[in-house]
Amino acid sequence: MSLSGKQKKTKYIFVTGGVTSSLGKGIIASSLAKLLQARGLSVTIQKLDPYLNVDPGTLNPYEHGECYVTDDGAETDLDLGHYERFLNVQTSQANNVTTGRIYYNVLSKERRGDFLGKTVQVIPHITDEIKRNILLLGKTGKYDIVITEIGGCVGDIESLPFLEAVRQLKWELGEKNMLTIHLTLVPFLKSAEELKTKPTQHSVKQLQESGIQPDILVCRTEHHLPADIRKKIALFCNVEVMSVIEAMDAKTIYEVPILMKKEKLDQRVLYMLDLYNDADSDMRKWEEFLQRLKKPEHEVTIGLIGKYVELKDAYKSIIESFIHAGAENRCKVKIEWIHSESLAVDNIEEKFSGLDGVLVAPGFGERGIEGKIAAVKFVRENNIPFLGICLGMQMAVIEYARNVLGWEGAHSTEMEKTTEYPVIDLMEDQQNVENKGGTMRLGAYNCKLTDKSLARKIYGKSKISERHRHRWEFNNKYRKDFEDKGLVIGGTNPENDLVEIIEIPANDFFIGVQYHPELKSTVVQPHPLFIAFVKAALDYSNKKNGKV
Predict the structure, then answer these.
(1) Separation CA 276–CA 83 (nearest Å)
(2) ∠ CA(40), CA(81), CA(63), 5° rounding?
(3) Which residues contact 297 (CB under 8 A, 6 or more apart)?
(4) For this structure, is 516 an active site residue?
(5) How far apart are CA 89 and CA 106, in angstroms?
């Protein structure tokens, strides 16, 4: 039950990080939000990123991992995926703000003359714009609590304007309406056989130099924090002992909310924000999911064919979707990472010998394309369960054109502009686009599923909505040629007839989708397409091993 009727203002929580990056601010923020949500509170999370790109849309996946896309078409940080997967609540453009966007907005106002000739400065103009974006979600009236994760580390030059905005908000909102949680590291030195608190002390000192006193410290550690260590941290960092929270390393990120509940992080937050809530966090469904995840009854191996496999975060949502779908099937999904550039006709049988299914992943550009096409050909001819996502679907179309329709030169105009058979072509509304950022087909679009198709069976309904991020599409000029040769169009966009799904009914499970189903899979609602794919891989494994 929401407290919005009992309180005058939305409460704000800021999560900062120190000592080192990659400590897991997004997971801590998501875990806290889940616990508060489980108490009946309405919660959302936003991410402030300190880089100058307006959004991550033009960033190479090697630089920043996956670009997460929301329903409203915003290209955002991958942490928003964690927020949605934990909370099962949609995010939007307002949930991810970069330094680039802040400066872009301020400079646009300056060009319009909105500042009436005033000298534009970091303080107050940039910090005012940061505060405006922070408070935007709270002003909707939808949320009891807004959690804001500040990217980077305390001490980074890029983060200073964000921290200054938080310092100012402390006095504007009032002490009981906001608090700061600082995530830090308490390393264990094997040579001394003891935990060291000095890095945490220095990190807090740096935060204090920015004018911010953390209210709660969440300490990442490989070992339990004994009472004397907690007291020492509290004493030197000017917080109460109860505000020193242990964050032990976990085998899976989905254990973290349970660990934070044991540490009473949500109780501490509610106390410090003066929020009365006598309900306990109801995490029964979450714990049931964890039990299925930890105690699988089966195992399958899925080959993920991609061009960014050296950085697993480039496929973060796909990885998590397999975890959700695996738990739903009581099955551990082992991912075999296969670089598309490593695949060739003479080695593909060996590389695929132990696989129970193959997913050809999304991506852009010509590098590794022929490897993906070779992978599709092998799984199609050997009836191995297949799922192609975005570019993966397009590769399936090209492979079918070349090897079933007999069009040897078939290709996508993304890779070969002069191809004789452009079975994948640039979308009509993309023909004259020059700027790359934020101009793709982005966000949620409707799809009407074909009766008696595999997709219709999987979804259990005739109309769906899925998220997109692409410029090229199936060329409808050749649609009848494909259908005459056995390819089924499983779903189309009702507004522009864009082909969204292709299937091969002759195979047990062969489906390609133009959209990104991985962006909608959550703990509470695993995506049906991934559930069906894992089930097909399990059936294939059982059949292969004579268990049927």
Answers:
(1) 25
(2) 150
(3) 330, 331
(4) yes
(5) 30
Asked if 125 is an active-site residue, the reply is no
Do residues 516 and 466 touch, judged by C-beta distance below 8 A?
Answer: yes
Cα gap 40→2, rounded to integer Å: 6
Which of 182, 411, 468, 516 is an active site residue?
Answer: 516
Of residues 149, 411, 518, 527, which has the active-site annotation?
A: 518
Strand partners, 213: none
Listing DSSP states for 288-313 in one string gives HHHHHHHS-SEEEEEEEEES-TTSGG
Q: Nearest Cα to 466, choosing from 419, 511, 529?
A: 529
Q: Give yes or no: 518 in active site.
A: yes
Question: Cα separation of 411 and 513, whole Å?
Answer: 18
Q: Which of 153, 390, 466, 473 is catalytic?
A: 390
Classify residue 152 by its DSSP letter: S
Q: Which two tokens stand for residue 301?
A: 């191996």
How many residues are listed for the chain in this entry? 548
pLDDT in tens, the chain (548 residues): 445 444 458 999 999 999 888 889 999 999 999 999 999 999 999 999 998 988 877 777 767 788 899 999 988 888 999 999 999 999 999 999 999 999 999 999 999 999 988 999 999 999 999 999 999 999 988 999 999 999 989 989 999 999 999 999 998 998 899 999 999 999 998 888 899 999 999 999 999 999 999 999 999 999 999 999 999 999 999 999 999 999 999 999 999 999 999 999 999 999 999 997 777 778 999 999 999 999 999 999 999 999 888 888 899 999 999 999 999 999 999 999 999 888 887 889 889 999 999 999 988 777 778 889 999 999 999 999 999 999 999 999 999 999 999 999 899 988 888 999 999 988 665 556 555 555 677 899 999 999 999 999 999 999 999 999 888 899 999 999 999 999 999 999 999 899 999 999 999 999 999 999 999 999 999 999 999 999 999 999 999 887 76
